[in-house]
Automatic annotation (TrEMBL):
Protein name: Colanic acid biosynthesis protein WcaM
SUPFAM superfamilies documented for this protein: Pectin lyase-like (SSF51126)
InterPro entries listed in its UniProt record: Colanic_acid_synth_WcaM (IPR023882), Pectin_lyase_fold/virulence (IPR011050), TAT_signal (IPR006311)
Length: 475
């Protein structure tokens, strides 16, 4: 599982992915000169330029002390932002111009704070640090490879933060775009929408060790050109979410849960969507192209459009992939130990067209199991890739499946139920098992049947509309 970032704000439970270390020193708010208070008193919005006396940090702090909104005009660039600026509760930073820092600077959003951008409103090498409820970040452009992340959501304080909105942001030429560390506190009702993420070394959105959070929507994003070339391990994912330690009982307090990832267009990366130790979630309406192993080659992460590790009770629906690695749905593993297996999920309306793919790549690879569990795979069309199903859930349904794989690459359909001599066989369901196949066609490039099925020993077997014959049932 992901290992946490090491920041001055918090420490976290172990997780599978090893992440980087970052640090910064947060400054206290300095003394405010009475003459500026008198000069700007009563104004709801002021330009920060009016407070500038050679120090932009002091100018922002003084402006926030006397007005509800601090404005950065379009023709202005505020530079040398190299320490923390705490926005008082309920304040707004309105940016039409630019702000630049050295990576150590940040604006800390407390209760009810907003950062709003007009066209051209931009941040470079400055972090937005969210530490309150009812915060909004909207309409800004962010860049810079110096800070670990452009937007940080975390902190040590054990509290609940509600109603965060991040909308219409553009993040490019940076490390991470949005990073959440969630072990110590709780986020409720978060909406991250309408973003454009490009040319990143780290993840576009990383929601890490988020075991307390509830109701998260990540939707309507374009993610492209995510390529970790700086040698960092486990960097370079489009959208990643992780709970804490894997447990095959799937306790609620260890999982990342109650979230939706929807309406994502992704291209040119190694892995687009990643979930570890999650439950009660939906991934839908994903359009992916050119997801392959040539990106983030030293990051040590699997190549897949969607990678799911050790998760329970989820739906993946309406996924359109072209010239891309497909799905990896597999075990929760730590240091070589198999701790959990995916269960209770549905895959529906899946298209994977690798007709013109120049690389050998993963198709749809699924491991599932456990004593009382189900898996439903429906309406799947795959060209020049393989559908693989490993291990044995209690009830397995395949409906309306059409798979073609070139014969020199192996079978189109692989059903590997026989793990009696494999350590992973302990996850197999053994009682009242069901295998149901309807309208399943698996062929090679010549239209010939192309399947590899090692053993069928389910108690109930229902079939119709197959272009192949199952092995005889064996007890």
């Amino acid at each position: 599982m992901r290992k946490p970032f090491k920041t001055p704000h918090t420490s976290f439970s172990p997780s599978r992915r090893k992440l980087l270390q970052a640090s910064s020193v947060l400054a206290a708010v300095p003394f405010i000169s009475p003459r500026y208070v008198l000069a700007a008193a009563g104004k709801s919005e002021v330009s920060v330029q009016k407070f500038y006396r050679g120090d932009w940090i002091a100018a922002f702090k003084q402006a926030f002390s006397v007005a509800d909104t601090v404005f950065v005009p379009a023709d202005l660039v505020c530079d040398n932002i190299n320490t923390a600026i705490f926005m008082p509760e309920g304040k707004t930073l309105h940016v039409a111009g630019g702000l630049k820092g050295n990576g150590k600077g940040r604006f800390v959003l407390q209760e009810g704070c907003q950062v709003l951008g007009e066209r051209g409103g931009r941040f470079n090498n400055i972090t937005l640090d969210v530490r309150g409820s009812y915060c909004t970040i909207k309409g800004i452009d962010m860049s810079g490879f110096v800070p670990v992340t452009q937007i940080y959501i975390g902190g040590k304080e054990k509290r609940t933060m509600r109603n965060l909105v991040i909308d219409q942001i553009t993040v490019h030429d940076a490390n991470y775009a949005i990073l959440r560390q969630g072990f110590h506190n709780r986020m409720e009702n978060v909406k991250i929408t309408n973003g454009h993420f490009s040319r990143l070394q780290g993840d576009a959105i990383e929601w890490n060790v988020a075991i307390n959070d509830h109701n998260l929507l990540i939707s309507d994003h374009v993610i492209e050109n995510i390529d970790c070339t700086n040698g960092k391990i486990n960097w370079g994912i489009g959208i990643g979410l992780a709970g804490s330690t894997y447990d095959n009982e799937y306790p609620e307090d260890q999982a990342v849960k109650n979230f939706v990832v929807a309406n994502i267009t992704g291209s040119n990366c190694r892995q687009l969507i990643h979930v570890e130790n999650g439950k009660h979630f939906i991934i839908r309406n994903i359009k992916a192209s050119n997801i392959n192993h040539t990106f983030s080659q030293k990051a040590g992460i699997d190549n897949a459009t969607i990678a799911i590790y050790g998760c329970d009770n989820f739906v993946i629906d309406n996924i359109d992939m072209k010239e891309s690695a497909g799905f990896l749905i597999g075990y929760g593993v730590i240091k070589g130990k198999y701790l959990s297996i995916p269960q209770n999920f549905k895959l529906n309306d899946i298209v994977l067209d690798n007709t013109d793919m120049q690389y050998k790549s993963r198709g749809i690879q699924i491991s599932s199991g456990n004593a009382t569990s189900f898996v439903a795979i429906t309406n799947v069309a795959i060209k020049r890739s393989t559908l693989e199903v490993h291990n044995k859930p209690q009830h397995l349904f395949l409906r309306n499946i059409d798979v073609m794989q070139h014969s020199d690459a192996g079978p189109a359909l692989k059903l590997n139920f026989d793990l009696r001599k494999d350590v992973r066989g302990r996850f197999m369901a053994k009682e009242d098992t069901l295998l149901s196949l309807a309208n399943v066609r698996a062929v090679n490039e010549k239209g010939q049947s192309s399947v590899d099925i090692d053993r069928v020993d389910q108690r109930h077997v229902n079939t119709s509309g197959l272009n192949f014959v199952l092995p005889l049932r064996r007890d």
